């Protein structure tokens, strides 16, 4: 998106440069929250500025005037309540829409098992005996259900241009769905501190044309 380019926020690991439907939903929510938060900041700063520069003597009567209670009611109760309702009205459908909900029977999909281990990602495909290391291959335009496992400590699976993050927790399997619009390479990163090698726990997601992916899946694994 042009705005992302302007703010230098494009790149292989940017949530502001989405490359799939789920990431687009998250980015739209992020821009909306930024706009609303900016509006709130401007209004509060303007009121603060006005209060700072008001020149009048303090009232002789120190009992609280009616307008002060009205400010408290509007600014302290009604506006925050309205803001939370607006956030939920957009946030809940967005969160629901990016979940790995069951797909219709017969819909094309791929399932991979990703094992997080200090400090690598092992990506297993059904029918291939050898896992990929720090690399996930997927076809463009097809939902890929990722089953996220942890083999030692808690990690977090995150490919910002395609989806939100999900924790990898020992003893549990968490699910997440990736989908990419077009072929390309995206960068994933462990998003939960897991030890000294955490910053280097990178996953390259290679999105291939569907025919190339099908050919690669049929190749004998090395
Ligand atoms: Cu980590």
From TrEMBL:
Residues of the Cytochrome oxidase subunit II copper A binding domain: 107-219
Catalytic activity: 4 Fe(II)-[cytochrome c] + O2 + 8 H(+)(in) = 4 Fe(III)-[cytochrome c] + 2 H2O + 4 H(+)(out)
A family per Pfam: COX2
Record-linked SUPFAM superfamilies: Cupredoxins
One Gene Ontology cellular component: membrane
GO BP: ATP synthesis coupled electron transport
Domain of life (superkingdom): Bacteria
Protein's name according to its UniProt entry: cytochrome-c oxidase
Species annotation: Aquabacterium olei
């Amino acid at each position: 998106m042009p705005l992302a380019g302007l703010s230098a926020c494009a790149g292989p690991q940017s949530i502001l440069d989405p490359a799939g439907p789920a990431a687009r939903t998250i980015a739209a929510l992020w821009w909306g929250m930024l706009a609303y938060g900016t509006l709130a900041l401007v209004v509060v700063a303007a009121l603060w500025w006005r209060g700072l520069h008001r020149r009048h003597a303090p009232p002789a009567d120190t009992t609280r005037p009616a307008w002060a209670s009205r400010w408290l009611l509007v600014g302290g109760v009604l506006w925050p309540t309205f803001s939370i309702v607006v956030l939920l009205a957009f946030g809940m459908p967005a969160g629901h829409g990016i979940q790995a909900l069951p797909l219709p029977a017969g819909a094309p999909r791929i399932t991979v098992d990703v094992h997080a281990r200090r400090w690598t990602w092992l990506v297993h495909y059904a029918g291939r005996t050898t896992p990929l290391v720090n690399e996930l291959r997927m076809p463009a335009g097809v939902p890929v259900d990722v089953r996220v496992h942890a083999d030692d400590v808690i990690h977090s699976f995150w490919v910002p241009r395609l989806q939100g993050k999900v924790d990898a927790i020992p003893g549990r399997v968490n699910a997440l769905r990736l989908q990419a619009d077009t072929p390309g390479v995206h960068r994933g990163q462990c998003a939960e501190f897991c030890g000294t090698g955490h910053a280097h726990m990178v996953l390259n997601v290679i999105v291939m044309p569907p025919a190339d992916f099908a050919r690669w899946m049929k190749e004998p694994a090395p």
